[in-house]
Each structure stands twice: as C-alpha cells, then as structure tokens.
Amino acid sequence: MKRVVSTILKTLLIATVIAVGSTVAVSAGGGQETETLTIYAGLLEEHAALVAQEFQKATGIKTSFVRMSGGEILARIRAESANPQASIWYGGGSLTFIEADKLGLLEHYKSPTAEVIPDQLKDPNGAWTGIYSGYLGFVADQEWLDSVGMPMPKVWDDLLDPRLKGELVYAHPGSSSTAYNVLVTMLQLKGEEAGWEYLQRLNENVRQYTKSGSGGGRMIQLHECGVTIGYLHDAIAFKREGYDHIVFTAPADGTGYEIGAVAIIKGAPELEAAKKFVDWCLTPAAQELGKTVNALQFLTNPDAVPPEEVIQLKNTKLIKQDDEWAGANRSAFLEKFNTLTRTTPPK
Fold this sequence. Notes:
With about 350 residues, this protein is of the alpha/beta class. The protein has 2 domains: about 1-135 and about 260-305, D-Maltodextrin-Binding Protein, domain 2; about 135-255 and about 315-340, Periplasmic binding protein-like II (D-Maltodextrin-Binding Protein, domain 2), CATH 3.40.190. The protein is built from 13 helices and 11 strands. The chain is globular, with a radius of gyration of 20 Å. It starts with a helix and ends in a 6-residue tail after the last helix. The relative contact order is 0.18. The model is unreliable at about 1-30 (pLDDT under 50).
C-alpha cells in the first residue's frame, strides 16, 4: 500500500508539472506572454518533474519537460536542429553530450555557478556541465540466484556464465547512455579487440535490450529477469522502495562511471531562460532535490550534500576513463555493436 500511495503521488506531481508547464500565461499589463522553458530530460521522471516545478517556483518561468533516454534526446535534437523545440538537455551521461557537441548541437555557456564544479566534471568550453555522477554495477534478484545455486556476479566475466543465458537484461547502447557507458567501459577495461569479443559473448546471454538504463532494474523488481547491468545508485533506489530481493555489487575488476550533465541546445528558442536554468540547477539546493525523489547520485557541486545511501559506493574501483575518446567515437562504436550483435535500438 505504501508503494501504491507513493506512485500515485509521484504521478500527480508529474501531471501537475506538465499541465502547468504547458500553459501560456498573459501578463495583466499588456498581453505579453510569460517567459517559458522546455526541457528534454534524461533522468528519472520524478526528478525531472520536481526540478521543473521548483525552477518555475523560483523564477516564475513556465517550465515543461519531456522525458526520454539519452540516445533518444540526441536523435531528437539532431532531427530538430533547423528548428529546435526545446532549449535545455538535462540529465543523462556526458558521453552523449560530447557527441552532440561534436555535431554542433550544443550552445556553449560557462555559467558563473559552474566555477566551483571540478574541471573533470565539466566541458572546458562550456558545452556541458556535470550535475551528478554514478557508477556502473551488477544488480540481481537474490531469489533467482538462490533458485539456480549461482553466487552474485563479482567480475565482468561472471556475466558470461551459461546459467545466465536468457536471464540477463540491460539497455541497448543505441538508445541508452547507461548502456553506451557499459560498451566503452569494456573497450577500455579489456582493450578494444578483447572488449568487442566480450560484448559478442555477453550478447549470447542477453534476453532483451531495454530502451532505458533503468529498465532492467525495474524488471528485477518484478522478478522478470535474474541479472542486469546498471547504475548502482538506481539499484539502491529500487531497493529503498521495499524490494528486499534486490542485491547489487560493483565489479571488483573495475567499472565505468557516468557524469550526468546539463546543456543548452544550439539555437535554443528560450535562450535567456535556459541560461537561468543552468545557473540555478548547478546550485547545492537544486542538486539536492534529487534525493527527495529517490535519485541517489553523487553530486558535482562540492557544497551539495549527497544522499547518505551512496556513501557505501565511495571505494568502488573505477577504470581510467577517456570520455573524449568515447564521445567522439560513439556513432562508429554503435554501428559496430549493432553489426556484431545483430540488434537495433528498441523503439
């Protein structure tokens, strides 16, 4: 019952933000339209809804959002580049933002609020700025593991276990920035030749590639698959909702990480409102909103207080990650992945 009430409240919040955000108000003085802002959001829908609501409350700017996965957002802004329909891209891994910048799809803006953000968490030219970070890991259904007598996977090669055939689910790198991070993590951890071989072998165990990075975790919640790959902060959030059968771990041989980012879309129709949003969303108060709706990432502003639950992940072994290389090669790597696995991104 507690989860049902929570879901209803979240749904009402989202509906309220979308409804309010799509209203065009007229000022009492002379018919001038109220300032508006449209956001393409690549993070949890509840998180996007709350941020839109709070930004509107703080600034009076009518704010609406559309929730999509990172790959979908990139495809959308690319298709709309001659006539952008949104001004802000908020959330999702920076690797996709890097590719977007290479394609000339982002407006460079160095927010004064971004001065405190560490250099490794933002683009030096202001194309994008980090808002949170998170680590890749394994998430499993403990009841399923017990039923087949399998221990929790501890290293990446454990996912090649034949017992996982048809029980492994994770997102497709063509639609999900989470899954693209998995792809380039393998190429960097194992080397390109061995990395591609691993991804081919992993594909033999995959039952389904989901559209979004959190899709596999939701299936674990419902006992619909045995194991998934995703961000560990999402696993913590799923478990916090009351699903005690969820277990998770970070790969002992090293793992990749994401930098969730914000950027202004090139040709933004609401440029000044977009700049105000970037300034605002990088503040500690704005970054701390996520943990109130189960978004449990590390935060990029040093003065922001991260969720207590993610402190346990501090000692995760991370690979030495080359984000510029990964972002610049995204199209080529996705084409090769599709060819090797004979898959296409889910619609």
